[in-house]
Amino acid sequence: MYEKLSKRVESVIKLARDIARSGDQEYLGTEHVLLAILREGTGIGAKMMQAFNVSEGKLNAEIDKLVRKNLDETMVFGSLPGSPHLKSVVATAITLAQQLESSEVCTEHLLLAMFGEKGSVAETVLRNVGMTYDAARAKAVELTAA
Is 5 exposed, middle or buried (0-12, 13-18, 19+ CB in 10 A)? Predict the structure, then answer.
């Protein structure tokens, strides 16, 4: 396993669980983490979305169109099971953090990992709101260098 998740990512996961529970959902999905990154607001992942004029209302509208209730597999984050897509996103975020020589997994790694999770709610939402992996990665490099 990777050394550690940043404190911000731990806060984002907690917020994502709260978002899922407030929507009476019995799982933790990529869509909840995506909303939590934006709602938390201080991480590079949030700043990346803000740079593309992505609002919580815009994300919610896209998510509402796409949410699926039936899941075949689960991964547990706290007391809510995580979707198979979320498990894959976390694994990819760990790899990205290592490739970018980061000492911890941060929100920008989670956000970038969501682009590669084809068929997930978050990947579809990001595409529908006009974000691309290449543009987001360029913005992440810009923001981390600042």
Answer: buried
Determine the topology of domain 7-145 in CATH.
Double Clp-N motif (1.10.1780)
How far is Cα 39 from Cα 42, in angstroms, rounded to an integer? 9
- pTM summary value: 0.72
Contact present, 51 and 98 (Cβ < 8 Å): no
Q: Digits of tens for pLDDT over the chain (146 positions)?
A: 345 778 888 899 899 989 888 877 777 888 889 999 999 998 889 999 899 998 888 888 887 777 653 333 344 455 555 667 778 888 888 888 888 888 888 889 988 998 988 888 888 889 988 999 999 989 888 888 76
Question: 135 and 52 in contact (C-beta within 8 Å)?
Answer: yes
The dihedrals phi and psi of 84, each to the nearest 5 degrees, come to -60, -35
Can you tell me the distance from the alpha carbon of 11 to that of 17, in angstroms, rounded to the nearest whole number? 10
Instruction: Decide if 125 contacts 31 (C-beta within 8 A).
Output: yes
